[in-house]
Design goal:
This protein is 41% helix and 15% strand. The chain is α+β, with helices and mostly antiparallel strands.
Length: 102
């Protein structure tokens, strides 16, 4: 963040990162894809396939939330979150993943 200087809103970035780091996954492990962004195929405006499961694993699903910020606009992001029904901690960790990827 220091290297970027004033090119980013540093206080906002730090807040997002701090929330992500403090959030915990306390539920049973679940399967996750691990690299959803870039591995979605669409057809006629809809999702037709999810491919490349080379990064899949078992644990917390936050890494699969990244597409909310890298693939969707704000209104689609709201629908995505509501449809998945993810808790605030998972959502915060997913946002942290997206920040890390950025």
């Amino acid at each position: 963040m220091d290297a970027l200087g004033g090119e980013i809103p540093a206080d906002d970035v730090k807040r997002v990162w701090d929330h992500a780091v403090r959030a915990r996954w306390d539920s049973e492990p679940v399967w996750f894809h691990g690299d959803v962004a870039g591995n979605l195929l669409t057809r006629d405006g809809g999702l037709s396939a999810v491919i490349d499961f080379g990064c899949s694993g078992v644990g917390g699903p936050a890494c699969d939330m990244v597409i909310a910020w890298t693939f969707f606009d704000s209104s689609a992001r709201r629908v995505f979150r509501k449809t998945l029904g993810v808790d605030q901690a998972t959502w915060s960790r997913g946002r942290g993943w997206a920040l890390w990827k950025g």
